[in-house]
Amino acid sequence: MIGTRGVPAAYGGFETAVEEVGRRLVERGHAVTVYTRGSDQREREYLGMRVVHLPALRQKQLETLSHTGLSALHAITRKAPDAAFVFNAANSPFVPLLRGRGIPVALHMDGLEWKRSKWGARGRAYYRWAEEFGVRSADALIADAPGIADYYTEEFGVPTELIRYGAPILEGAPVDGIRALDLNPGAYHLVVARFEPENHVLEIVEGYRASRATAPLVVVGSAPYAAEYTQRIRAAADGDPRIRLLGGVFDQDLLDALYVHARTYVHGHSVGGTNPSLLRAMGAGTAVIAWDVNFNRETLGELGWFFESASEAERHFTSLEDDSTQVPVLSAAVRARAEEFFRWDDVATAYEKLAARIASGNSVHPVARRARRAGTTA
Q1: Residue 289: phi, psi to the nearest 5?
Q2: How far apart are the first and last CA of the chain?
Q3: Residue span of the structural domain in which 27 resides
Q4: 267 and 303 in contact (C-beta within 8 Å)?
């Protein structure tokens, strides 16, 4: 598994997928190697997975690419694995290197990264190019949401493997951690997101501030590359004691407790596929207020309140202030949906079957290698 920060998972969706899938493949008798960067732990094995630690350039545009390049070089100079999973379409330039060594590659395409505002014009252009290059290079393409799969079908006319993330099912969590933050169970709204415009943290904070809610708004997150946007969020929250900006929370037990004991989880993400933060809230049995985009509706199955502006968020915060019926009903419903449709065991089985298929020679490459974006000519 190549192209992520690796294990232990402490960052995002890719890393969680690598850990959850990798550990299950090991339990099923497979040998799994995970390439890792930046981990405080230097052990060569984690949950049965072999861990290879390699460096990366600590620069926004080059960190992922530099580490993946070193990982690919390391992989091709050792005994070839039966299959490789490369995560992030940006890493597609290294797919031919692996395939040239006879290693079949499934490329996880992520969620239309070129739409993210954190990248400048050149960064977005690169992601669009890398996306197309990945389509033409890999043996299989993984999409983590129906909307992403539809995009590749419509844009390139190539099939993808729809493999969604799993949801951690949280049976409960101690209240000590949230009590220490002066919070009460069931009496606060929670946001967990990087501070980036497409995650709409600013609109959530503005909407909440305009509401008559008394349950605090607890915001977990930060953004190392978005100082101006972060300042706008802080300015919107300034002077309102109901709004609590906690910054990053890296204690996973505390983060679980924040999800489990929240009244609602407010999800502003608008770019990407099936989002791990949303799944974590669903697995915790926490009712959701979500940005109105197809990815979120697909994940929730319409079991939530949706908004597209600060004013719509304000209406939800205000209407839920006195609600005593809808919140527990939707809390139970999203948890049941997570248990039924987002099981890590099922995700691991899908990865296992895909690895077996590409290892046996099954590949979309003969069909996809001449693919072009819709509207362009070969």
Answers
A1: -110, 120
A2: 32
A3: 13-166+345-368
A4: no
Give the mean pLDDT of the chain: 92
How far CA 122 is from CA of 126, 131, 374, in Å, comes to: 6, 14, 21
CA–centroid distance for 249 within its chain: 16
Do residue 17 and residue 151 come from a single domain?
A: yes
Q: List the one residue out of 126, 57, 120 whose CA is nearest residue 88.
A: 126
Mean pLDDT of 347-354: 98
Q: What is the CATH number of the domain that holds 53?
A: 3.40.50.2000
- AA letter at 99: R
Confidence of residue 225 (pLDDT cuts 50, 70, 90): low
**Alpha carbon distance 92, 72 (integer Å):** 11
**Residue pLDDT, tens place only, 125-166:** 888 899 999 999 999 999 998 988 998 999 999 999 999 999
Q: Which amino acid is at 322?
A: D
Percent of the chain with pLDDT over 70: 95
* Residue 291 and residue 262 in contact, taking contact as beta carbons nearer than 8 Å: no
Is 5 inside a domain boundary? no
Exposure string for 283-296, b = 16+ CB within 10 A, e = fewer? bbbbbbbbbebebb
Structural domain includes residue 57 = yes
